[in-house]
Amino acid sequence: MDLQLDQLRALDAAITEGTFDAAARRLSVTPSAISQRIKTLEDAAGRILVRRTKPVRATESGLAVLRLARQIELLAGDTARELGDELSRGPTRVPIAVNADSLETWVMSALGRGPSGVCFEIHREDEEHTTGLLRDGTVMAAITATAQPVQGCKVERLGAMRYRPVASPEFARTWFGDGATTAGAYAAAPVVLFDRKDDLQDRLLRRRSRKPLDPPRHYVPSSTGFAAAVRLGLGWGMLPDLQTEDDLAAGRLVPIDPGVVIDVPLYWQQWRVHSPALSAVAATIADAAADALR
After folding, report:
1. Whose CB among 67, 81, 135, 194 lies 3.0–4.6 Å from 198's, allowing a Cys bridge?
2. 27, 250, 260, 279 from 43: Cα distances, Å
3. What residues contact residue 51 under an 8 Å CB cut-off, 6+ apart?
4. b/e per residue, 201-226, with b = 16+ CB within 10 A?
5. Are 191 and 218 in contact, with CB atoms under 8 Å apart?
6. What is the pLDDT of residues 27-37, one digit of tens each?
């Protein structure tokens, strides 16, 4: 296939921005130029790469070409920096997927110490599902709970985030008085979940009963909001030690099942390409994880 750089950039811009008009503004060309470049790219590939919907979406074949486009763009940015041409080339865009709790507790400080000349595009996703964003080319790297590398990626273990079940003191007295962490107590006590992908609380419930437990559930899709909901007594929840140290010391939260913890292993997966920019980001994340994780 004879794939031209301007065609690959048009595909990347259209999928990233969502419309041909927005892609045209990003590349300083006309929408018809974007459309023509993608059509020529599709002719070269011999298949449809883009669904002309709103927003524009890549087909399965388009995802494969999109990964190539973004890898070439990453390497082009690295080369520009080596040649001292980063000002005219612009910063290198590095999209990464991060789970909410890591983003809230230790990742942002790591990225603040990251390499210059890089613009981050952070996608928040549950650590059990970030690999999907790697597979479809949405991100170049991800913090994930999956040790098995995605095809075309390499993986390094970062450590583990430790979670424990906690609640406000009043909530704990009401629902788990005298330390009664029985299946019956867990079945009745309201619980806070991040979203419907969040399985941490149910992991604990499965430990406490062979029968499925379905207590009243609150869904709070924000790491900060989740912790606030637990502090305010809406329910109990699994919170990371990195987020609760001060609350436990001050008595704003108490463990409801002392000694019970769940360690969630985290891994860094990234494209298997030789990119100084991506390698520098990986090194920054690894250093921060060594300090923050178990």
Report:
1. 194
2. 21, 65, 58, 35
3. 57, 58, 59
4. bbebbeebeeeebebeeeebeebeeb
5. yes
6. 999 999 999 99
Helix (H, G, I), strand (E, B) or coil at 56: coil
Q: What is the pLDDT of residues 67-101, one digit of tens each?
A: 889 888 888 888 877 777 655 566 788 999 999 99
What does pTM read for this prediction? 0.82
> In this structure, is the dihedral angle defined by the CA atoms of residues 16, 90, 76 and 288, taken in order, positive or negative?
negative
> Residues 6 or more apart from 287 whose CB is under 8 A from it?
110
Q: How far apart are CA 53 and CA 240, in angstroms?
A: 40
Cβ neighbours of residue 117 closer than 8 Å, sequence gap 6 or more: 77, 81, 86, 91, 92, 277
Give the number of other CB atoms < 10 A from CB of residue 124: 15
Q: Is the dihedral of CA 164, 160, 100, 108 positive or negative?
A: positive
Do 158 and 143 meet the contact criterion of CB atoms below 8 Å apart?
Answer: yes
| Cα–Cα distance for residue pair 88/168, rounded to 1 Å | 54
Residue 9: C-alpha distances to residues 15, 67, 69, 230 (Å): 10, 11, 7, 46
Q: What is the DSSP letter of 6?
A: H
Degrees to nearest 5, angle at CA 73 with 9 and 93: 100
Q: Which residues of 72-96 are buried (b: 16+ CB within 10 A; e: fewer)?
A: bbbbebbebbeeeebeebebbbbbb
Q: How far separated are the first and last CA of the chain, in Å rounded?
A: 47
Instruction: Write the single-letter amino acid at 197.
Output: K
Give the residue among 56, 32, 47, 41 at the shortest CA–CA distance from 7: 41
